[in-house]
Amino acid sequence: xxxxxxxxxxxxxxxxxxxxLAAITLTACSAESGDTDATNGAEPAAGFRDxxxxxxxxxxxxxxxxxxxxxxxxxxxxEFAGYDIEYGNRLGDDLGVNVEYVPVEAASRVEFxxxxxxDIILANFTxxxxxxxxxxxxxxxxxxxxxxxxxxxxPIDSVEGLEGKNVIVxxxxxxxxxxxxxxxxxxxxxxxxxxEATNALLDGRGDAWVTDNTEALAWAGKTDGFSATIxxxxxxxxxxxxxxxxxxxxxxxxxxELVDLGKENFFHNAYEKTLKxxxxxxxxxxxxxxxxxxx
Length: 295
What we know:
globular, 11 strands, disordered N terminus
């Protein structure tokens, strides 16, 4: 994956990341096992890095999305940006190290931690019991549920309306897991990346796209002809940073960091900078933001 050797370039060399990410995507498409956040047979690597090791090295590796605006994406200047990136930048500052952002896909998040390709995942990572068996979550910094986007000329406003339709999901997401478990009657078309999913919806290869409602509202709000017609689906969950299983030192440092950040309303400020321009008055910051790591 791409390397970011200095603080001035810590938001990424997007062109290089895109080339490498494309190659990885092609490989993943041919080797996908179908398991949500699976390690694809890889043996877990020993030797995750604690806080002291990261500080001695001078760099922390953080896995983020590169195509999920406004949470984690590469902007027009070729730099990583978004709500998750604001958090990642602050973690780097307070650790006193550079940040090396590593693009990940939804289905690879667990594997990247399990094999120590990254120290932390901040890729809009919803907390689930299944994932918590494989990684260790820090305390949350956001709330989320599922939602659905459909075309304005063929709106679907209930989960019952999705039956018999072609529903788009991204592999390795809670949307995929929720629908397969609770609504096996719904036909799913699965993609590796968010841009692939939205392109499929735009060109009519699907009748609806089910994803985090935060993403559904954001994408529909900036895309003519589409609306988040099911704004809430399933239960409310939380989003949190995650570390390798057993890395208690780094997880506890992150939890203490969340307490300190809560004292300055860090995530409300990050919301105003990255999410408010997208949601406008349609969403309240308090509906999404978690301060201090506590609901």
